């Protein structure tokens, strides 16, 4: 994708992935501008970097000199700006298509799965940087250790057994709307496969077929194509059946090609695989993060990173924004309350994160604020959500956050629906009318020795810091 001198407009530029793409395109010589519905710290940071951002998404916002439009996956195909761009004969592509083109020009590494994509991607990039492999990357979250969520690396791999090949381009591969089918990686990982995005895939079989098509897009083994897939929890036989890439498995099973051991008390991870035996102590808690770290380490090794440096990097990785992130401590008359924040918005993510934090923190009580993400997901997985809070003593549910649900979908389920289902299972659950109401309820619910965990993919991430810093 020739970029120098091109005028590129990004619609939905405020998202983590799109903002990262904007910076990569700018660094490669393109003239970049964009729009988003509302201003945010992300759009403000883009403007500070010289990228013009507008909140006007009408047809008039399309600049006369634009020659390429890139749209976020969530933007409807009939959006007026996209229709106007097409009528002008402009090239219109989606975010994932742009990633695929960047990967075709470099050595692509994609990380897919229902859970853990951002964390694994960040861990892998940290290891590649520590090993001197200078990757380019776009991650769907802010990673303080990496200086953000994106970076432009070397045009060619600088060192190691693949030195001189086109530079590494690492990205997480989102399955929503089948976006990851546009990726063009040489190496890829599938961390897990579960029911999600059922408004797109309809059922688990549809999800499995979606991941199988992603696997088929990886090049043949004799062309260097490699796929790492979870030994358990990824329907690996069905997913890899049509793939001609070299397939290796990872997991806690001793039958996996890459076998992990995890000590929940010490957080020590041991990874054994072909010619490798690595050990480190994870800083992010939980078995699920041990698996994420294992996958990241394997991908880094495949890219030519020195094992000793991979081991060091895994031990040094401190985390990323809103992924089991420690927010702070608030002192009440009755004692201290520790506060954590997490992006998890799928039942499995919730269950694993709450169990991991309960084990590592040993609180008097665990109070969870969970904001559901999308009415359709909440409705399709309602029973699974209701059974995912077993590690919580109290659950507070504010209004559902949505960006693409139809009005009819919004009428079918709300936060009270989930609260009623939780109460039917014996869970102490409360509904909140807004995020402000949620913060007020925390003042009445929390006591010294409690642990507060705030979860969800939407603006609920503001609740933890707001409560910690309130008087």
Please report the number of helical segments.
17
CATH architectural type of the largest domain = 3-Layer(aba) Sandwich
Helical fraction: 25-40%
Number of domains: 3
What is the strand tally?
Answer: 21
Q: CATH superfamily of the largest domain, please?
A: Mur-like, catalytic domain
Describe it.
With 471 residues, the chain is an alpha/beta fold. It folds into three domains: 7-94, NAD(P)-binding Rossmann-like Domain (Rossmann fold); 106-316, Mur-like, catalytic domain (UDP-N-acetylmuramoyl-L-alanine:D-glutamate ligase); 325-469, Mur ligase, C-terminal domain (Protein-Tyrosine Phosphatase, Chain A, Alpha-Beta Complex), CATH 3.90.190. It is 34% helix and 24% strand. It is built from 17 helices and 21 strands. It has helices at 16-27, 41-48, 80-87, 95-105, 117-130, 198-201, 204-216, 236-240, 287-302, 307-316, 347-361, 375-380, 382-386, 407-412, 415-424, 435-445, 463-469; strands spanning 7-11, 31-35, 52-54, 68-71, 91-94, 107-112, 136-143, 148-151, 168-173, 187-190, 226-230, 246-251, 258-263, 268-273, 276-281, 325-332, 335-342, 366-370, 394-397, 428-431, 451-455. The strands form three sheets. The chain has a ten-stranded mixed β-sheet with strand order 8-7-9-6-10-11-12-13-14-15, with helices on both faces. It has a six-stranded mixed β-sheet with strand order 16-17-21-18-19-20, with helices on both faces. A five-stranded parallel β-sheet has the order 3-2-1-4-5, sandwiched between helices. The mean pLDDT is 94.
């Amino acid at each position: 994708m020739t970029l120098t001198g091109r005028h590129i407009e990004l619609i939905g530029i405020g998202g983590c992935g799109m903002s990262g793409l904007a910076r990569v395109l700018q660094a490669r010589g393109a003239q970049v501008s964009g729009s988003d519905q509302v201003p945010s710290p992300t759009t403000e940071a883009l403007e500070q970097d010289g990228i013009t951002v507008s909140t006007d998404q009408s047809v008039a916002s399309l600049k006369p000199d634009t020659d390429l439009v890139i749209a976020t996956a969530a933007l409807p195909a009939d959006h007026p700006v996209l229709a106007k761009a097409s009528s002008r004969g402009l090239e219109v592509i989606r975010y994932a298509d742009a990633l695929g083109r960047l990967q075709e020009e470099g050595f692509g590494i994609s990380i897919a799965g229902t859970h853990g994509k951002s964390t694994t991607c960040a861990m892998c990039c940290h290891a590649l940087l520590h090993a001197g492999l200078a990757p380019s990357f776009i991650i769907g979250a802010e990673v303080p250790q990496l200086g953000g969520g994106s970076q432009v690396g070397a045009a060619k791999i600088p060192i190691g057994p693949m030195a001189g090949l086109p530079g590494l381009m690492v990205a997480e591969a989102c399955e929503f709307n089948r976006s990851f089918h546009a990726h063009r990686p040489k190496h890829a990982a599938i961390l897990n496969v579960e029911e999600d995005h059922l408004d797109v895939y309809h059922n688990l079989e549809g999800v499995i077929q979606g991941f199988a098509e992603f696997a088929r897009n990886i090049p043949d083994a004799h062309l260097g194509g490699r796929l790492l897939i979870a030994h358990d929890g990824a329907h690996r036989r069905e997913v890899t059946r049509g793939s001609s890439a070299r397939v290796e498995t990872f997991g806690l099973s001793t039958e996996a090609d890459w076998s992990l051991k995890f000590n929940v008390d010490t957080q020590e991870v041991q990874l054994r695989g072909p010619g490798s035996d690595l050990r480190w102590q994870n800083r992010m808690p939980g078995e699920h993060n041990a698996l994420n770290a294992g996958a990241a380490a394997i991908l880094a090794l495949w890219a030519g990173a020195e094992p000793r440096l991979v081991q060091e990097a895994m031990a040094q990785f401190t985390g990323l924004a809103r992924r089991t992130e420690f927010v702070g401590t608030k002192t009440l008359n009755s004692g201290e309350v520790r506060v954590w924040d997490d992006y998890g918005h799928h039942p499995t993510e919730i269950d694993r994160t709450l169990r991991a934090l309960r084990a590592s923190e040993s609180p008097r009580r665990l109070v969870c604020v969970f904001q559901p993400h999308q009415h359709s997901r909440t409705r399709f997985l309602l029973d699974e959500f209701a059974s995912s809070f077993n590690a919580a003593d109290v659950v507070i549910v504010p209004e559902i956050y949505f960006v693409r649900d139809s009005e009819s979908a919004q009428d079918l389920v709300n936060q009270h629906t989930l609260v009623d289902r939780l109460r039917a299972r014996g869970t102490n659950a409360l509904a909140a009318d807004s995020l402000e109401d949620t913060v007020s309820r925390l003042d009445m619910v929390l006591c010294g020795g409690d642990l507060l965990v705030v979860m969800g993919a939407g603006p609920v991430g503001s609740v933890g810091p707001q409560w910690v810093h309130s008087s």
